[in-house]
Predict the structure of Methyltransferase domain-containing protein.
Amino acid sequence: MRDAVEIVEAFKGQLAWTSEERVLDIGCGPGTVTAQVILPILPPDATIIGSDISESMIKFANDEYGGARLKFKQMDIVSKDIWDKWNEETFNKIFSFYCLHWIQDQQ
C-alpha cells in the first residue's frame, strides 16, 4: 500500500477536481487502497466505485468499507461485454494500482 500512497501524494496536486466527481478504482482487491488512500483525497461530494474480478474481494470490501460515497462492484476488465453491466456508469477519473500487470492480453 505504501507505493500507492507515494503515487497519490506525488500526483494529487495535479488532479483537477470538479463537483460531484465519479471515480473508478480498477483492481481494488479488498478495498483498502480505495478506502484509505483514494477516498480521502476526493472532494466531499465525490463518489467512488472500487472494482475487482473477485466476488469474494468485492463482498469483503463492501462489508468492510462500503458506504454512501464508496461502493464496490465485481468487474472483469478483459470481458468483451464489460460495459453491459456498467452501461449507466460514467467516471471522471479512473485509478488502477495493482491490476494491469496481471492482464495478459492488454489490447
Observations:
- Residues 55-65 form the longest helix (11 residues).
